Structure formats: structure tokens, C-alpha cells
Amino acid sequence: MERRTRRNAGSSAFTLIELLIVIAIVAILAAILFPVFAQARDKARQSMCQSNLKQLGTAFLMYTADHDGVLPCPGGTFRTSAWPGGIVIQSAWLLSSSTGLGKDIGGIWPYVRQRGNGGPNNVYSCPKSLPGPDNVYSPGQNYVMNDYLRPCHPGEAAYQRRDLICGYQWASGINPDTMANPSAQTILLYEAAQNNTLHNVNRNGSPFFSTGRSATPPLCEGHPQNYHARTSNFLFCDTHVRAFVPGSTWEAATQGRFVDLNANCPTLQALLATGDYSGSAPTSLWNPGFPLGSGYP
């Protein structure tokens, strides 16, 4: 009786082959499920990014309600004195009094006061954005305002002559009701590739506005950042948010200008090889209504 009991007890144990089969099954399931979990996490981050942009869109609406229907200026370098005619410089959509967190002033900041050093605690950045080093300008910010949202824009090719061509209108925001193109088809904010060292961005930009190497090559700083399954999130002037492959936001007719105006991008050819940055829109989603060849791009 004792021998039979021992034999039965021994026969209930796993053999080496059975253990290997179980391990193989677990490995197969993990290989199948991990990409699914990763996609779910990325989708959640994209949804959070879209929620951030929607909150900022509401802040823009509140700003325009308090400023006679005019959007804040996208940004840029302005004269320190009043413009001719006594018109003073308006603040950009986001300003800082000095470097570091807690120094934000003006623009839409009074309406959305939630800023962190990148990641999920910063409404002004995608959750996938990179945090910046301590005490840098605009730490962790990767949302950028469309540079063309001004009453006058000389075009990026004539950027250095903007004061001569546009005067004080360069330092002003545009009234969406006066745009030739519909608000629902004009980009207001987009998420941009961050600087490769400080992880900050310019406040204003466009696909035709490249400023150097980014932290996420082959993109250059300021290009729409394709964080979300090769797409970028865009906030429109009517405050709706949509995801697009970056190239599908500008026209094929302006692709040559995109190449010319991004000649300083050190990885331009590698960027073009991805196919995601080739203009294919039937009409530009960046242009508020400037005729081609006279201010755009």
C-alpha cells in the first residue's frame, strides 16, 4: 500500500517537457498581449493629449471674449517701444517673466494655470513630451501656436522683413471671424518636436518654420511631432481636435517651399523618406487665408 501511494504521488508531478510547454505558452501569450497593452497605453496618452488641447482651446475662447474677439499673438521677437500710431505690443499666447517654472504671465495663462515639467501633470504638453532640465525657459512645453494667425504675415521666406512689411500687425493676433478660411479648417495649436538639449520649443511655428535638431530625429525642432501612431494632434480655431499625419495638413503645391524652408534641418532627407511629411492636403490647414505667393508660406 505504501509503494502504491508513493507511485501515485510521483506520477502527479510535472515532467520537464510539460514545464517547457507551459513556459512556451506563457511566452506566446506575452508576445501577443504586450503590444496590445502598449497600444492601449499610447491610445490613453493620445486621449489625454487631446483633452489638454481642448482645455487650451477653451482658454483661447475665454481670451478672445475678453479681447474683442481677437486671438493672442502667436509670439516672436517684437520691438520694445510702441509701434507707429501709438499701438502697443500685445502679449503672445504664452509668456514667461523669467526662466523656470512658476514664471508664466499673460496670454491664456490666467485661464489655465496648470504647468509642470512635461509629462501628465502639464496641460501645456502632450503626456509623451520630454521633461526639461531645471530652470529652463518653457520646461516641458511642446504645444505651439500656428505662426500664421496674424492680421499680416510676410511669409517665412520674408521673415526678416516682417516689421517693414507688416508693422504693428505682426505683433497682433487675428480675429477668427475675419479669416478667409473657416475656423474649423485652420490650425490653432499643434504638438511640436522639442529641442534636443533643453526640450523646449518656440511658442510659434509651422511646418515651414524649422529651427534645428530635435530630441526626436529625424524631426527638426518645431515640426509637428508624430507621437501617436505616426499622427499628430491638432487643435483648430473652432476648438475641435483631430489627429492627422503631419503631411496631410499642407498642400502638395507647397511641398517645394517646405523643402526649401527646412534646408537647415540636418535630417531633412531622412524625414522626407518617412513619407509622413509630404504635403497632400486639398487645402492648407495652416493658412488663415493669405493668397499663395503673397504671405504664405
Summarize the structure.
The chain is of the alpha+beta class. Helices cover 27% and strands 8% of the residues.
Which terms would index this structure?
alpha+beta, 7 strands, two-stranded antiparallel ribbon, 5-stranded mixed sheet, 297 residues, disordered N terminus
Question: Strands, helices and their partners?
Answer:
Layout: H1 2-11, H2 16-66, E1 95-96, E2 104-105, E3 143-146, H3 162-166, E4 187-191, E5 204-205, E6 232-236, E7 241-244, H4 255-261, H5 268-273
Parallel strand pairs: 3-5
Antiparallel strand pairs: 1-2, 3-4, 4-6, 6-7
- Cα radius of gyration in angstroms: 25 Å
Low-confidence runs of at least 5 consecutive residues: 1-7
Tally of contiguous helical segments: 5
Approximate shape: globular
Biggest sheet statistics: 5 strands, mixed
What structural class do helix, strand and pairing data support?
Answer: alpha+beta
Spatial order of strands in the largest sheet: 5-3-4-6-7
Portion in helices: 25-40%
What is the N-to-C order of secondary-structure elements (H for helix, E for strand)? HHEEEHEEEEHH
Count of distinct structural domains = 1
Q: Quaternary arrangement of the chains shown?
A: single chain
Q: Taking all residues together, what is the mean pLDDT?
A: 85
